Amino acid sequence: MNILxxxxxxxxxxxxxxxxxxxxxxxxxxxxxxxxxxxxMNTYKQHCDIAQVPIDFREKSSYTLVDVDIRVKVLxxxxxxxxxxSYNMERFHSKDFSAALAKILAENKFxxxxxxxxxxxxYIGLLREKSEAKIVLRAHNVxxxxxxxxxRNERNPCKKWYLSLLTRRLKRYETNALHQVELIASIxxxxxxxxxxxxxxxxxxxxxxxxxxxxxxxxxxxxxDERQIVLFHLGSMDWLPHQEAMRWFLEKVWPKxxxxxxxxxLFLAGSYMPDWISKGQFPNVTVTKGYVEGSVFMRHKPxxxxxxxxxxGIRIKIAEGMAKGKVILTTTNGAMGIPAVHGENIFxxxxxxxxxxxxxxCVNEVEMLRQISANARSFAQKExxxxxxxHKFIEVMTN
Length: 399
Description:
With 399 residues, this protein is an alpha/beta fold. The chain folds into two domains: 2-210 and 385-398, Glycogen Phosphorylase B (Rossmann fold, 3-Layer(aba) Sandwich), CATH 3.40.50.2000; 216-383, Rossmann fold. The protein is built from 17 helices and 13 strands. The strands form two sheets. The protein has a seven-stranded parallel β-sheet with strand order 3-2-1-4-5-6-7, with helices on both faces. The longest helix has 22 residues, at 157-178.
């Protein structure tokens, strides 16, 4: 089959959860014998120099990048207040991207057009006009839920009002867009439940995040060394939910943990690290600012903390961490969409005192830690094989 994959950020290089999810699905589809053409927005946060992309990927995928400025701008945001449109979505509409898309559609005939995330939905009208292909929305999240949670947790009344406005408009847009495609392929089963609860009647499927377990990064299992018990967190900090979560951990959990275990160390890494973290006076915390190679940073660090209280979809870093045998400590929201079992292959709690107790247990019971690690890896091998995920998707589309 000929497939056009449209991404709201470069899928290569795969450096964050969204780009990794898109890239691995591409790889899975190709492994199943399909032709995939990739068109992506080249945004300022994940800007990619096409010359640095491997030639074989560029040629095989006809990889096309179009510069799109999605930055929040004061005047457009202000004028948007006097409309009923979603400013979240307006930022992703581009004349240059529309022109590139129209050109690709004129030169190629596709069986399936795969929209990666809601932020590519502004082009559905153009797709209907220029192509007869089936359109699939691959939902990485229920987007309005992220903003709804941020609004609920915001204390500043003016900011809370604005976030609430953005949420209402985004929800209206998302609800409408879901009815304009042939299929919704959600990374999380939980997101499909939310869509249905909101009244969506479009056919849906669960299309889990895929991992290439034969890749060098995952095929070697790192056996836990009891002398190297440390905690770590890896994530881009320009996303408000990540900052919200880390503030909770550093202010509520870490002081008690560091008192109980004065030698225990916490490593934090990610781009756009805020000063309150990088310059904060937190005991035994090492902060690495800017982009880091995830596989290198995770090495010899057995316990991954993923506090999360906003958003939907799945935390792809959790799936990857489990595939590497990391012991994951997360919240109910963080584990959303991941059918793992608390105390068996993951730890899940929303209570900061329980987090302290779990970390105490991890430090003091090394054999238990090793067992959770092995169970996590086994779970990921069964749940997230990228070739099987892509095959399942094509089966649904052809039946």
